[in-house]
Prior knowledge:
The complex is a heterodimer.
Chain A: H1 3-40, E1 42-47, H2 53-66, E2 69-74, H3 77-89, E3 97-101, H4 102-110, E4 114-115, E5 136-149, E6 174-177, H5 184-196, H6 198-206, E7 210-212, H7 215-224, E8 229-234, H8 238-241, E9 246-249, E10 255-265, H9 271-281, H10 284-293, H11 311-315, E11 318-320, H12 324-337
Parallel strand pairs in A: 1-2, 1-3, 6-7, 6-8, 10-11
Antiparallel strand pairs in A: 3-10, 4-10, 5-8, 5-9, 5-10
Helix pairs in contact in A: 1-9, 2-10, 5-6
Chain B: H1 2-17, H2 24-62, H3 76-79, H4 84-117, H5 123-131, H6 138-149, H7 155-164, H8 176-201, H9 205-212, H10 217-228, H11 230-245, H12 249-255, H13 263-272, H14 279-304, H15 327-354, H16 370-376, H17 379-412, H18 418-426, H19 433-445, H20 457-481, H21 485-493, H22 498-527, H23 530-535, H24 543-552, H25 556-587
Protein name (chain A): Iron(III) transport system substrate-binding protein
Organism (chain A): Enhydrobacter aerosaccus
Keywords (chain A): Signal
Amino acid sequence: MTPIRRKTFLAMAASLAVAGHAAAQDDAEWQKIVEAAKKEGKLTLYTATIGSPWHKAVFQAFEKTYGIHVEPLEARASEIRERVRVEQAAGRFVGDIHHNGSTTTGLMLRDGNFQPHGSIPNLKNIEATYKADDIRVPAEVISYCLLINRSQVKPADEPKSWKDLLDPRWKGKILSDDFRALGGGAVFFMVTYDAFGKEFHEKLAAQKPVFSRDIANSERRTARGEFPLYLPFSLQDYNQIKSLPVKPIVPAEGRPYILFQLSMLKNAPHPNAARLFMNFYLEHEQQLVFANAGYNPVVTGVVEKVVDDLRPLLAAKAMGTTSPEKQDAMLELAKQIYS
Amino acid sequence: MGSAALWQRSDRATVAGALPLQADLPLARVRRLGRPAGIAALLLLLGFLSVYPMAMLLYGSLHSTPPGMAGEFNLDGYASLLTQANLIVLANTVGISLVKTVLSIALAILLAWIIARTDTPGRGLLEVLITLPFFIPPILTATAWAMLGNAQVGTINLFWRWLTGSDGTLVDVYSYGGVIWHMMQYSTPFIFLFVVDAFRAMDPSLEESSRMSGATRWQTFWRITFVLMLPVTTSAFILSFIRGMESFESAVFFGTPVGINVITTAIYDSITQRGQPDYQFATSLGFAAMVLMFLLLVLQSRLLKGRSFTTVTGKGYAPNVTRLGGLRWMTFGICVAFVVATVVMPIGQLLLSSFFQFFGFYQLDMLTLDHYRAIWTNDEFWSALANTMLLGFAGATATMALGAIVAYITTRTTWPGRRLIDLMAWLPWMMPGMVLGVGFLWGFATLPHEIPIYGTLWALFLAYVALGTPVSVRVMSGAYQQIARDIEECSRVHGAGWWQTLVRILIALAWPAFAVGWVLVFFGIMRELSASILLYAPGTSVLSVTMLKMWVGGKPEEVSVIGLFMLALVLLFRWVQLRFIKSRLNTL
């Protein structure tokens, strides 16, 4: 071995030893967090995801693994936001974790409702598309696509691109979430407006889509044949209706999406339990629960293991998402175009 | 004679008081102090229940930011109401509510008269069935009617096309008509519940006198029956009109898709459908609506002022019915048609769907009992049900007790402050529920931490009492106004105290109305969502929140099962209630 090679070898060995030591130190530090979390014994999670059995399954898995009880408080995004705001303003610090879409989370970050979460080991597995920072931890992704009624849309007529919606044959036959209100409709509007411009939406408005606020019922209305097309369909609802005559389609341009994030609320009464929960949420096993339910996972190496019928849909490219800065302007624009 | 009567009265008073004469002096002083102290306590209670959350909302309407955030006082919220779009929304709201209230009140009075005052066959069963739609969660009937009446593949239109061979559309629920029809499903039974017992409690000798004086049956109905029912019908009209202005589900399901917007959908948009919720606009719009409703109350007060509506007197009477002869089959047909349209069709749809895997897919291979099993094994449902039952029983009882007292003070006394008490009890009814829910959240969360209300069942209990009090006051006021003062005076002359007279005379005579009010408030609590979603905490979830979770979670079939369970509960309550009413009438 030449002196240079020996030096290199020694340097590498030393750095490995340091890294190993650091890892051991990290493990010991994390173990302290785990113990402290167990002593806290419970955590309160404010979530804008309502009635999801998949989330409940993950909460129960966490309880089973660590013996820490999860108390979820479910409400709509704006209701969660107002509760957190007024509680904190009144000096009531009840919640530990906030789980909401990235837009509402971004607005709450601006309002100072959160505190840094500290180091979380599983953050290293996050996919490049979904960024984490010292406050926000990506949780799972709602992806939007098209839903067609298989009895009414022949395979040859199935839309391949979002622009196929402008085909005159679909005039008056599109059921849609309202683009002028928060939710999937607004996400679709913003992403496709950015991608295809105003002209696309002016032409789509001429197709006379029928807006509905009863999102949970829209899939069934499509399945019953009230409308042949529905958009934007949330992929995580597919499992529940897959035995009906419907089919989800991700057009060639990709899937608009909304990223859900976990954040630690300011003065959280159980900060260690909250941190442990965030780490647990990012484990492959939990992310696979979400992925098999139709959510896009946020960590690498999960999509490949998803059930066959969902895998190609989740693997389709991400088209884009909303931003809190543009949201109100876009809602106003949608009102003008779809008045 | 006079001195003997006086002697007897003083003797009885002494016996009733069971105290020697000298000891009566401090007691009299306590009683003298008792009234203002009682009024003060009542004002304090109503102040906390209604004025306090309203004050928080008023702050919200006059401040650029909600409580707890830096901002400035201004009138921007009110100024922003003055746009053409908002005026159209206001006109839509008033128009829709007025049309549906007029139609509902006409139908409800007709049905109540048929049930209470005619010999129409099957009245007992029909009475229960007519009131059923009121107790079904609106989200379920909206789903049922969306399946029955959509223009494309709605069951009614498919049947019409099969019957006539045309490809036209007979009904489309996504329209003004659909919004009004869906609202009528709730307002007709609601008004019916208000007026049917008033019809039943009316001394028929008044009508008989009219007939004996030569008036026709119609003249008697309009000049005697209808006029005597004015306190109850105007109360029901106003409650129903206001509720119509605050209705949300009908408009959001059937109006929004075709561009029909009302006050509540505008408020909903401003606080839940914008990136930055606009509470200043929402609360300002709520107060603007409140002013409109307040004007209605003034109108009602003027309409009824100085008139007597006594129908229950100290003299005995035998409730009788009008014999309709062959016409009774026509009245029977009217009731059956109403029951088919509002009960059999939507509830039948829900019942059928609850046995299939999916709403509207009636294939043999999709038959299942899974939805019933899912509810049976759902811990969250049972926990929410237990909380709701506790809050329902305690809340309805407390609300009716409070309503009975408030109504007594406002209708039977000349005590100072009674008008203020009446107004305070009314306030929560005049503010749209979703805005008031925010008022409770702001109010309870900002209380000193030593007062353990926020985050407990107490928060829900107090909100429910506040929300139910206007109904309980109206129900009891209408009933009290029909009771002659001489009965009450007779009780006092015979030595009964204020409480004894209230409980043993007034509530005893008005108790059918008390029971109806109790059921209305109980099921109001079961269905209440706007305040519940903002006030529940982990462990204190209630049925309406659990149903929302299931609905949003894509389980409408399981929500149907809960809806049917609620209906079974209604049938049980109504059966018990009507049995008691019958036994009471037999006693009379």
